[in-house]
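Suppose a colleague, Dr. K., hands you the sequence of a protein chain of 246 amino acids and asks what its three-dimensional shape might be. Before reaching for any lab equipment, you can write down a predicted structure in token form. Begin with the sequence itself:
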Amino acid sequence: MEKIRIQKIIADSGFCSRRKAEALIQENRVKVNGHPALLGQKLDPLRDIILVDDQRIQPQTKKQHLYLMMNKPRGYLTAMSDDRGRRCVTELLPPELPVRVYPVGRLDLNSEGLLLFTSDGGFANDLMHPSRQVTKTYRVTVRPDISDEQAARLSAGVYLDGRITAPANVLVKTKEPGRVVLEITIHEGRNRQIRRMCEEVGLEVARLKRIAVGPLRLGMLKPGAVRELDKDELRAIRAVISRPKG
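The predicted structure, expressed as tokens, is then:
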């Protein structure tokens, strides 16, 4: 059998994303046949024994991968578990899934909306890779009002961590006394990016909900509910992440 890079074996097994697998290897938490693993090391997944924190990785079989969408409620951490006892999104998953899935990307504890899960490490890696520039759309309620100047700054980009954000698409959906609902579309994935962009221009975020990732729309899925992506949705998102880079 052709040998495969260790981070791909771990990701394809559904244990975590390829990026997370690379981090685990660099943190010396992965062993191969009893020895510390090396990043990029090529292995035979059917013969070599891979352990992550002493948990054996089961290589990918011909089991069908799962691709799920959740409407994440506020108050849940985007993580598999939490040592501080906070509620995690994995608690909302159906209890008897045929394969292990993990979240693709993240939403903040107090953010809500569309969150994807999969057992397909390659799919997750492509979807999150900055070069793919997959758009993410948010419905953002801000206080107290928004000026044309603030909207223009959000659209053009603001400085976060010493570099400017990429241009965003900003639409004012509704205006009421003391609150404005915006629809903001970005293709970056910096930590707490939408909240920090709004704070940078002087807006208080009262509510933040992701309503779309690329062509995938949250629609009427109820908070806390989970469903599989249908064939058309999977075909559409695969078309986006398979586009030539650049």
